[in-house]
Amino acid sequence: MSIIRAENVSIRYITGDFKDIGLKEYVLRRLQGKYHVKEFWADKNISFALEQGDMLGIIGSNGAGKSTLLKAVSGIMIPTEGHMEIHGNIAALLELASGFDGDLTVRENTYLRGAMLGYTRSFMNEKYDDIISFAELQDFQDRKFKQLSSGMKSRLAFSIACLVSPDILILDEVLSVGDGAFRKKSGNKMKEILASGVTGILVSHSIAQVREMCNKILWLDHGKQVAFTDQVELYCNAYEQFLFDKKLPHTEEEIQAASEAFLERKKEEREKAKKAETKKLKAVLEAGEKDTVLQAALEIIRKKQPELLREFDDDPLEDED
Amino acid sequence: MFHSIALKLKKNQFLFEELVKRDFKQKYKRTVLGMAWSVLSPLLTLLVMSLVFSQFFGRHTPHYTIYLFCGTLVFSYFRESTNGGMNSLMSNANIFSKVNVPKYLFLLSKNVSALINFGLTLCVFFLFVFLDGVTFHPRFVLLIYPICCLVLFNVGVGLVLSALFVFFRDISYLYDVFVMLLQYMSAIFYTIDGYSPLMQKLFLCNPVYCYIKYFRVIVLEGMVPSLSFHLLCAFYAVVMLVIGGMIYKVNNHKFLYYI
């Protein structure tokens, strides 16, 4: 049985001048015929299915409908058309630090957030110490939330969401929280959670992250589904090529071609970089004055490009040595 | 329907408790004075009104202070509860747009703190009743009935207002004017004996007046209101609750677009 199954899900979004206008303004605009509401499909005919333990990466440029789709998965919005089936409780990390109350203490906020995520008081009592120590906020438990630094805030949000044990974890651009040390810790924690068999959805603009963590890819473009696949490498290659040349591939062959073009481009770039480095090293060997510098350059060459040294065999520089 | 709501409430009990705590702390800023103030404020209203109106209306009305207190007690609860309720959805927008929680919980939790205030003021009310020499009678227990109706009625009005407030922000000003009008039409400081029988009937169209009248009949007139009056009280509460519930049900996923 699938944990999450979306069948032809379409979500209609409305925008227009209806926001923030009062009753008076509304009536006036209605009378003058100036009241415009625009409807558009934020997502159109999206279908995918996730089994237990799957990690889905949703990729697509801004405005592709990623966040709207996540809102439908977490139940905040309902699909206008189509069908969405969810089995299990969801911890959704949509914009981590929001939804906290500045006037409440860290402790109170932790319990409030836990309650929002659907946990019981006894469960939170049990987990509270773990959460605080993971977020490294032991000394701040009874501080008001607004007194924390923004890094601390997102650390707390991340800890709450991860230390409770959801069946389904939704991550929307959240993996880059805190300083270097915490980022490493949170990355490890994420891997641990994923290994434990949670089903996850990740939205990230970092393709490297998607490649590393996901085993399925959903590619959206302007609300339309380009692909849902488990060939992560192939499609990530094609996606990166798409980001480069803005040509949206439509068929299987075009995907293949895009992926090859991407690999080709990467290879070229690598060679270019290598050439530039060789040039630099050569310059150092030829013009370097301190012995230590020359030694270091030689060391690098020996390690990375031993074939260069052969070039130097009949070099006059070597003879003088 | 009520069963499913009860089930949901049970599931969200923890969240509800935390929200109530939060609202309470926000409101009183963790000060004892904050709480005393919210009891004091209806008492001050009472004081001002009795100073101003005793001369005009007090002479012909026995126990005029209690008569007045019945009015201000019910009306200040109504005002506080609905005014707080109006904001409940909007001020929690950043929560329900990120996490899937039943939206009426915010309103209910706001209503709890208003209800607690009302409870405290009610204690003071009984103290006044005692001091004014009105004898206590077992029928006072019946006051639970209009209180229950009033709670439901306030929740219903709160549902309607909070939804409207999301759609039209200037509702709050209109509502202020409306509340003032309603206050003058609720016979808080005057009696309606001087009006024609038809006008007296028209007063019954005002739900808040009905609840006030129930209090007065029990406490001051020493009688139990008729069955039809009971039904009228319940009718207003249920109608408001159903209208509010319908608005929430229809717009449950629409609120998101307006914040």
Mean pLDDT of chain A: 81
Q: What spatial order of strands do you see in the largest sheet of chain A?
A: 5-6-7-3-8-9
**Principal-axis shape of chain A:** globular
Q: Which class do the helix and strand fractions of chain B yield?
A: mainly alpha
Question: What's the end-to-end separation of chain A, in Å?
Answer: 72 Å
Largest interface: A-B, 39 and 30 residues
Task: State the helical fraction of chain A.
Answer: 40-55%
> What's the helix count of chain B?
11
Q: Helix/strand/pairing class of chain A, anyone?
A: alpha/beta
Oligomer: heterodimer
Distance between the termini of chain B: 28 Å
Unreliable spans of chain B are none
The outline of chain B comes out as globular
Low-confidence stretches of chain A: 316-321
Largest sheet of chain A: 6 strands, mixed
Brief overview:
The complex is a heterodimer of chains A (about 325) and B (about 260). Chain A is of the alpha/beta class and about 325 residues long.
Describe the structure.
The complex is a heterodimer of chains A (321) and B (259). In chain A, the strands form 2 sheets. Chain A has a 6-stranded mixed β-sheet with strand order 5-6-7-3-8-9, with helices on both faces. A 3-stranded antiparallel β-sheet of chain A has the order 2-1-4. In chain A, helix 10 packs across helix 11. The longest helix of chain A has 36 residues. Chain A is of the alpha/beta class and 321 residues long. Chain B has one domain. Chain B is 76% helix and 0% strand. In chain B, helix 4 packs antiparallel against helix 10. The chains are: A alpha/beta (321), B mainly alpha (259).
